[in-house]
Amino acid sequence: MRILHTSDWHLGRSFHRVSMLGAQAGFISHLVETAREREADVVAVAGDVYDRAVPPLAAVELFDSALHQLAEAGIPTVMISGNHDSARRLGVGAGLIDRAGIHLRTSPAACGEPVVLADRHGDVAFYGLPYLEPALVKDVLGVERAGHEAVLRAAMDQVRADLAGRAPGTRSVVLAHAFVTGAAVSDSERDITVGGVAAVPLDVFDGVDYAALGHLHGCQTLTPRIRYAGSPLPYSFSEADHRKSMWLVDLDAEGEVSAARLDCPVPRPLARLRGTLEELLADESLAGHADAWVEVTLTDAVRPADPMARLQERFPHTLSLVFAPDRSEEEALDSYARRLSGRDDRQIAEDFVGHVRGGVGPDTAERALLHEALDAVRTADHLGEVHR
């Protein structure tokens, strides 16, 4: 069976205030055309279809167009909700849409209920594991303590139990939206840390032939059987070195996996430039970045006049400007944004406690309370999305 694995469309998201809807529509057309040309048997979409729980109307219209294009092409599609999606909203009409060959899997209670497709070698069971927010799904999955590993293991136990009751030789694919240990992150993924832990180990997915993962925006192979497709478009300058792509996965009669990486169309390349304003304006080697989306870090000791306007004369698509003067260690004063760069909410909260107490950070009990409070806030956000 041939599977086209994609994820993290984030329909409705912009890139530094530049609308990406046109590029997202172009990707959807490319996806459908690729599925046709490569004779894919199924398209697997591993979550974060939308960028937020209540997407803008234009994003909803684009999703509707995607469903129609896939259905008209006669390409079965299995799709799960991610941590950016509202599972309830994405799953509306799933029973009816199912009849058109578009299988939306957004319910944590249905992790062990596969979409079964067949090829000339027999059945392939596709199990959709939507994003599982631990505090909200632990009771549904029979887990005592909320945590990403615990709820994913419980969901995978349901998958393995169902698979064990199927005919010998039934092959299996799991779609999941999670952060797996050893994978590389970028700045554009939303933090899903619970109790100080975000990642789950690879062995959670033992027992299935292929795990089609979503959540992280870089395309990557953790094992030949466990892969992230990554986002088809860039959503932060931290993705400047990414090669945006999808996986074309072949599952043979014995469940062995082979995969080819297929490039996605990207509207513009990304470039991150650093130096003084005069250096950047004069450096001939940078001429190739004239058509790129550009992030500039200026190292001038004194902020120059009209830097953005002057940069845009040479690099018309400069979108982000950061000031980081080259100074000695004694003089170094990083901006607030730079101090927070690469730090999660938990680390920021702990650092704040240390800052206001003259360098004395939280003790073990205080740290536990901070983590509990942060988890409660995120859980409240998800509950709000569910009940809106």
TrEMBL record:
<comment type="similarity">
    <text>Belongs to the SbcD family.</text>
</comment>
<dbReference type="InterPro" id="IPR050535">
    <property type="entry name" value="DNA_Repair-Maintenance_Comp"/>
</dbReference>
<dbReference type="InterPro" id="IPR041796">
    <property type="entry name" value="Mre11_N"/>
</dbReference>
<dbReference type="InterPro" id="IPR029052">
    <property type="entry name" value="Metallo-depent_PP-like"/>
</dbReference>
<dbReference type="GO" id="GO:0006260">
    <property type="term" value="P:DNA replication"/>
</dbReference>
<keyword id="KW-0235">DNA replication</keyword>
<protein>
    <recommendedName>
        <fullName>Nuclease SbcCD subunit D</fullName>
    </recommendedName>
</protein>
<keyword id="KW-0269">Exonuclease</keyword>
<feature type="domain" description="Calcineurin-like phosphoesterase">
    <location>
        <begin position="1"/>
        <end position="218"/>
    </location>
</feature>
<dbReference type="InterPro" id="IPR004593">
    <property type="entry name" value="SbcD"/>
</dbReference>
<keyword id="KW-0233">DNA recombination</keyword>
<feature type="domain" description="Nuclease SbcCD subunit D C-terminal">
    <location>
        <begin position="267"/>
        <end position="353"/>
    </location>
</feature>
<comment type="function">
    <text>SbcCD cleaves DNA hairpin structures. These structures can inhibit DNA replication and are intermediates in certain DNA recombination reactions. The complex acts as a 3'-&gt;5' double strand exonuclease that can open hairpins. It also has a 5' single-strand endonuclease activity.</text>
</comment>
<dbReference type="GO" id="GO:0008408">
    <property type="term" value="F:3'-5' exonuclease activity"/>
</dbReference>
<dbReference type="InterPro" id="IPR004843">
    <property type="entry name" value="Calcineurin-like_PHP"/>
</dbReference>
<dbReference type="GO" id="GO:0004519">
    <property type="term" value="F:endonuclease activity"/>
</dbReference>
<dbReference type="Pfam" id="PF12320">
    <property type="entry name" value="SbcD_C"/>
</dbReference>
<dbReference type="GO" id="GO:0006310">
    <property type="term" value="P:DNA recombination"/>
</dbReference>
<dbReference type="Pfam" id="PF00149">
    <property type="entry name" value="Metallophos"/>
</dbReference>
<comment type="subunit">
    <text>Heterodimer of SbcC and SbcD.</text>
</comment>
<keyword id="KW-0378">Hydrolase</keyword>
<keyword id="KW-0540">Nuclease</keyword>
<keyword id="KW-0255">Endonuclease</keyword>
<dbReference type="InterPro" id="IPR026843">
    <property type="entry name" value="SbcD_C"/>
</dbReference>
